[in-house]
Amino acid sequence: MNLLSDLAFAFNKTFDTDVFPIPKQVTREVHARVKSLRDPTQKMSKSAPSEKSRIEITDSREAIFLKKCRKAVSDNLGVVTYDHNLRPAVSSLLDLYAAVTGVDAPSLSSKNWTTLQLKENLAEEVDRLLTPIRDRFQGLEATDEIDKLLEKNGETAREIAENNMLVCLPNVKPSKSPINQAGYRTNVTKGLADEKRRGPPKKSHPTDRETRPALL
């Protein structure tokens, strides 16, 4: 998102045009940032060093229950209550439960769960949500469907790119750029033609857990 915004802004400013709309991030009002299972002050991220800090959509039921939710950081202040100032870790787990189930996080205090019950109920709901996604992911890994989609959509993307270049090039003003427009047009056209002949690169499916997508 940041790269797209920077590129669009730089092109528009350099050539005094509005050919590229500036992308804007859309953030949901609730559950916009799910916290790490190991540190409630940090967001859940697939780049975090510890696998235990996040839930991945390919995690097994056993991993979700035993390695992730049950070992999530909590506290020993008794029955679960929702208070980010006093109980940040427990409140973050309640936020995650609410994000998965669609219930209101503060209302969960009325259930009188212990922290263990919260973790077990959270694991159950996360696994319920992810089971069909995990099954579909594993099914795709066993076929060449993804490669076919990449090839088909790659052709579509190249056609769109060629049309976009036809829109962009007239806005490249020689007086504002050292680029020779005619030469640039020739090089771009030749590059797109070469890429079309080569076709899309083969994409291998992820096997390293660190490369697999996180839940949120």
Automatic annotation (TrEMBL):
Q: Give Gene Ontology CC terms.
A: mitochondrial matrix
Keywords (A to Z) from UniProt: Aminoacyl-tRNA synthetase, ATP-binding, Ligase, Nucleotide-binding, Protein biosynthesis
- State where composition is biased (Basic and acidic residues): 205-216
Q: Which domain of life is it from?
A: Eukaryota
Q: Please name the GO terms that the record assigns under molecular function.
A: ATP binding; tryptophan-tRNA ligase activity
> Which GO terms of type biological process are on file?
mitochondrial tryptophanyl-tRNA aminoacylation
Q: Which SUPFAM superfamilies match?
A: Nucleotidylyl transferase
Under InterPro entries, the record lists: aa-tRNA-synth_Ic, Trp-tRNA_synthetase
UniProt region (Disordered), positions on chain: 177-216
Where is there biased composition of kind Polar residues? 177-189
Give the record's family classification.
Answer: Belongs to the class-I aminoacyl-tRNA synthetase family.
Q: This chain belongs to which protein, by name?
A: Tryptophanyl-tRNA synthetase
